[in-house]
Model the fold of this input.
Amino acid sequence: MKITLSSLLFIISLPVFSYCTGDSLSYLTAKDTIFLHVDDFGNKIFEHQMVEGQTLYSLARFYGLKINGLLSYNTHLDPEIGYAPGTIINIPIPDSSILKTRRIDDPNVGYIPVRYVVRRGDTFYHIAKHFFNVHLDTLQKWNNLENTMMFSGMQLHVGYLSLEGISDSLQLSNSSPLAAKMLSLQREFGYYKSYDEPSFQNGAAYWQREKTGKSDFYCLHRYAPVGSVVHIKNPMRNKHIYAKVIALIPDRAYGDDIIIVLSPSVAKFLGARDPKFYVELEYFD
Done:
């Protein structure tokens, strides 16, 4: 990998990675930087660290969200208990709210930088075209890069965000079909979890690799009621997903070691390669 001296100085001079933004009077200030990552469902997520004087309701409003929408991205929160300063809040940032027409040397009055933190497996092309819809030459010029080689943890400048926050109209358009489906299933699972503790299970999942079809996120389980939602995790690949139970596993149709049967869409999302693979489940019975 070849990086110019100016690129190296640019990387070294980047602000120390920090989630903390704003103060007790505002949620963004001119000295802040927004750091983004893309989650498994395609959402661009900013992790905001709460400070004294900030509230979940005003935070949600600043970023164009309803409180229930904010909580759906933060299942670790209990609004009745509240939060302590330092609590991390996941904020979805719609791509349409990221301004990409300003040059990096333009005055930044009213806007703050948005940076993407490169993950293992990312490619420059995928980040530019699929994550942020930026021309490759533009992204390369913004970051003073001689080539498009990257490394995990690298911070790429991808645009600017207004100090005034995000309008609710932009947030309403912020969902891919997959993200919308997953968010709906996650909300349903979270709703039932607020009333009942889920059961835990681990063991072998099964799916048919040769089967094709539309992107349906369903499963068969031995105990979970039909119509309920199961939270499925593949710890080997650090991926998780939600799926709707459409039927019970038929008796003698699968071995006793199979605890769940997955649709191809669910299995592929979890990174499955073999017909059987290890999973961990949360479900309601």
Confidence is low (pLDDT under 50) at residues 1-18.
